[in-house]
Request: fold
Amino acid sequence: MENPELVEKSGKRVVLLGNEAIARGAAEAGMGLCACYPGTPSSEVGLSLADMAKKVGFYFEWSTNEKVAAEVAAAASFSGVKSMTAMKHFGLNVASDSFLPLAYTGVRGGLVAVVADDPLGHSSAQSEQDTRFYARMGNFPVLEPANAQECKDFTIKAFELSKRYEIPVILRTTTMVSHSIGTVKLGRIRKPVTKGRFVKDPSRYNNLRPNLQNLHYKVLDKMAKLEGEGAKLDRVEGPTNAKIGIIANGVSYNYVKESGARGARIAKLNMTNPISREFISRFLKGLKTAIVVEELEPFIESFVREVALEANPGVKVHGKDVFPRVGEFSPEIVEAGLARLKVPGVRPKDFRKHDSDMKKIKLPARKPVFCPGCPHQFTFKAVKNAMGKDTVWSGDIGCYSIGIFEPYNMIDWVISMGASQGMAHGIKKVSNQKVVAFIGDSTFFHAGMSGLANIIYNKSDPLIIVMDNSITAMTGHQPHPGTGFNAMWEQTTPIRIEDVVKALGVKHVAVINPMNQKSMEAKVREFSRKKGPAVIVSRCMCQLLRKRLIRAGMITKEGKLKSKRKPVRHSGLTGGRESHSG
Amino acid sequence: MGDDVDEFNALLTGVGGEGVLLTSVVISRAANIEGHEVRGTQLHGLAQRGGSIPTHVRFGRHVRSPVIRRGDADLLMALEPLESARYAYFASKGKTNIVIDDYQVMPAYAKSVGQKYPSMDRIAGMLKPFAKSMTIIPASNITSKELGNPVFGNMMCVGAAISMGFLPLKKGSIEKAIRQTVPRGMKENLKAFRMGLDYRG
Reply:
């Protein structure tokens, strides 16, 4: 067990990471099944649950992608089992095709989807998207915890609401909630019910018209009722006769609390979809000024403006006029916004000297680099030597995305999981440029195979390099279909990428260890001249994983699997996890 | 228990692999053992790989937010000298005691483009406007010699911070937290911690 406090006794006070607290909450709620694909800032939810699975008795799997994970969890919930899935914000893009219909069909056992947004992009490249718009589009209730204790408590609440209203509930966090630590008072872990039974029910699951419209009415009705639940969950503090009111959600609430604001009424919104119209209406009564403090999009703000028109047309509503829509909030940003609106008690100190002294500090930067011995750097070197700088480099998502930086500059774009394939094909269709597509092993199983099938079917010939380090490395060493074992530490038949590629019809396929620079370079040269698509599987285990597996006695120094392997955790790149084991 | 501190802010920094996060787990668990309400951050981003790691640990009655405000750190503990000055934003002259392990890790990229590592004097000069006090300890070098591994420098720094009165936690709570957190290498970590308690510059 990586963090023994995850399964500590009821009543104990421990310090947990937000994501760990979510995992603990799932166990206290009696969750029976969880399926995830890792994605930071959500990764430790799955990592913790994978750790706890055998001990607590629920089922856990790393699925091949978020869409599959959502389907697995949905079907378990259809069968009456409390189930969960966890993903980063972009994971919901992948899962959405299967997730959105679930609001209409509803679920039976309870289904909670943890979705972690990443304002500022601490560990995300693509965008600063705001998950709450999915919730509005698809009609899902959203709970937003502000600290680790609430991460646990709201997970339990989410399961309760999901089961009672038979609708999937989104537990939305942001990086500063998922990756913040806090004191958590533990409750009792409930014995999970892991077996259920699917009961056929066309009135529920037949979503072709005319029943489609019945289901649509049904979900709108559920959402209307859930507004009442929101009103019960949301909190108000401060004097009832205040003229200034502040409405905040998630981590922003903490910044408001520490801003020194006095005399204002503060509403902490715990359910941000649907927002209770009655709650906001009551809150706005008597106010002269209402200030909405939320990161990213003016989601709550626009609703508050709408309600204000009827409830209190005289109130002046502020939000994105004083707070940024871009990046992540800090205590200073919230303080500055509140000070601009002259909220009593908020008096930012004079930091002009502090700031000018800061400007004098010049230090050598620590840019993201490959870990010592990382095989990816050798792949990049060999490919660049063979192909030349003017090649178009179609990038993908994984540790190798670091190739976007100096001295490699060998990722021309990072679009989404698996996009290296379709994008390489698109360039080939309109240009005679040389194109190389880089994709990782886990990314290949996630969303690369369909893009590769398209390359073959629609006839183009990029060179594809599968950078196979035998694990999902970036998010903390999760196993995948190619690794030969699963999240529950059962042995599996590894799916070999070269077999898949050949089965899809690629004629030129080679497997090479990138540490052998010469043969890698030669093969890249040879394959780049071939007609038709060519695939090189550049295979060498992540060196951090290798060290860890040797230390754990699971493999020999030569990399051979030992027959008697003890089930130990080997999550790792994410330092926090590693640190727990020393 | 736990209501004797209003707000204490520790910023722990260093480079991936030095045990910054381990240090933050030990301190936050020790604070929890003493009954304090704890908050803080453990960010994992791209910066993790050989990168710079800042972690916030906060405890006390008034603590809500996971992050320290500008200039509000009571303790800035850096396991690597560059990583002390890099986070001067959180420190200030009126408040912050700074503890630095002088064990240098040259940034790989900076090295490849011929940049030089600034002298300890220069780093100390940059930090001076942000420091109530500054203590530079050759912790990793000492543990490397005495315990065979520079990685225990972190626990020695924690010990030194406690003995100098820069970290309002009891010796026994830290020891208990070390036992809980690092069952493997516990003996060396405890030894390093005690060496820090006894350290006189």
Remarks:
- The helical segments of chain B are 20-33, 82-85, 108-112, 120-127, 139-147, 153-163, 171-181, 186-198.
- The radius of gyration of chain B is 16 Å.
- Strands of chain B lie at 8-15, 38-41, 52-59, 75-78, 97-101, 133-137.
- The longest helix of chain B spans residues 20-33.
